[in-house]
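Kindly go through the entry underneath: sequence plus fold tokens. Please state briefly how this chain folds according to its tokens.
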Amino acid sequence: MKPMPAAQILASVFIGLNNFFSGLIVRPQFMTGFFNVPFWITPGHFVYEGLIVSLYTADTRTVFAEQGSDFFDDLGCDETTPIGECSGSVSQFVYSFFGGRYSSDNVVTNAIILGGFLVFARVLTFLALTYINFSAT
């Protein structure tokens, strides 16, 4: 990309889109319709999902649910449940927080897809460095 400020702006746009559609800013269960497409083609989604499920899938520490939260509802608690008695594990919280769309079953698939992104980016970089010469223009 020429000139340098345009390249920097374009890179920041790609970084912003990657962060937005990775599930980091907007949770995956809220990306429906058109927004489901960039969610699945954004590399950050696979990194973030792999990181989250690798860390918290088998975590049995206790998380207390606040009344009215999605986690509270997913645990089957209601208004009659005494405060502090509605709790689940960290892995249950992660499942609830991401609407069941992040799963430890996807870790191998995520690694393969990320490897594909990496190979594609390296090939594209090689082709760009081989065939594009800004100094000659």
Notes: Residues 60-101 form one domain. The longest strand covers residues 62-64. The helical segments are 4-21, 36-41, 43-56, 70-74, 90-97, 107-131.
